[in-house]
Amino acid sequence: MKIGVYPGSFDPVTNGHLDIVERATKLFDQVIMTVIHNPRKRSLFTVDERVQMLSEATCSNPRIIVDSFSGLLMDYVNRKKALAVIRGLRAVSDFDYEMQMALMNNKLCPDVETIFIIASPQFIYLSSSNIKEVAMLGGCVKGLVPACVEKRLIEKANN
Ligand code: COA
């Protein structure tokens, strides 16, 4: 069984992330979308809320598993017996950061590859931060995030 791990903050998941994971399931038997708590980022949603939204958004694809973890990514990947880490690339500006992570991860665990999937053009401008900013200021994010995420963003904005 070929397993890939797609890690991220997913605060919240966007249609850009879903585009990447759907395409990754054509390469792997199973893709684990795993939410990490990144202490360097201030989050809007708790890890549990993010896992819940991801589960709802991906429930129609049985190849996608949703999970969360804290600690070193390569330890998690080994525990899951995964072959590769999957990351999306939106623009050249993502490249430096992603290359550093991929090289460090490869140093820690030479048997695990990082696979980059180029974001579809309609999603290259999306980030979780700009989605949150627009939604919190009352803007419309329909079509940019799954319906379950849009609903929760509206609830947060009204509280
Ligand atoms: N569509 C929409 N948004 C996308 C996207 C896409 N296709 N691809 C990336 N993004 C956005 C995300 O929404 C996120 O936006 P934000 O900064 O506004 O929240 C941003 O790009 C990148 O964040 P994310 O993919 O969530 O990564 P991250 O930088 O928060 O964390 C990990 C990356 C999880 C891989 C890394 O922190 C990690 O491995 N942590 C574990 C600890 C560890 O092992 N460290 C050593 C690593 S060398």
Question: Which spans have pLDDT < 50 for at least 5 consecutive residues?
Answer: none
Strand order of the largest sheet: 3-2-1-4-5
Cα separation of the termini: 44 Å
Query: Approximately how much beta-strand content do the residues carry?
Result: 15-25%
Detailed description of the structure:
The chain is α/β, with parallel strands linked by helices and 159 residues long. The chain is built from 6 helices and 5 strands. It has helices spanning 15-24, 47-58, 73-79, 92-108, 128-136, 147-157; strands spanning 3-8, 30-36, 64-69, 84-89, 113-118. Strands 3-2-1-4-5 form a 5-stranded parallel β-sheet, sandwiched between helices. The radius of gyration is 15 Å and the shape is globular. The structure holds coenzyme A. Coenzyme A (COA) is lined by residues 7-9, 11, 14, 16-17, 20, 36, 38, 41, 72-73, 88, 90, 101, 104-105, 119, 123, 126-129.
Any key phrases for this structure?
five-stranded parallel beta sheet; 42% helix; single chain; alpha/beta; binds coenzyme A; 159 residues
Give a quick precis of the structure:
This protein is of the alpha/beta class and 159 residues long. It contains 6 helices and 5 strands.
In terms of topology, how is this protein built?
Blueprint: E1 3-8, H1 15-24, E2 30-36, H2 47-58, E3 64-69, H3 73-79, E4 84-89, H4 92-108, E5 113-118, H5 128-136, H6 147-157
Bound molecules: coenzyme A.
Residues 7-9, 11, 14, 16-17, 20, 36, 38, 41, 72-73, 88, 90, 101, 104-105, 119, 123, 126-129 line the site of coenzyme A.
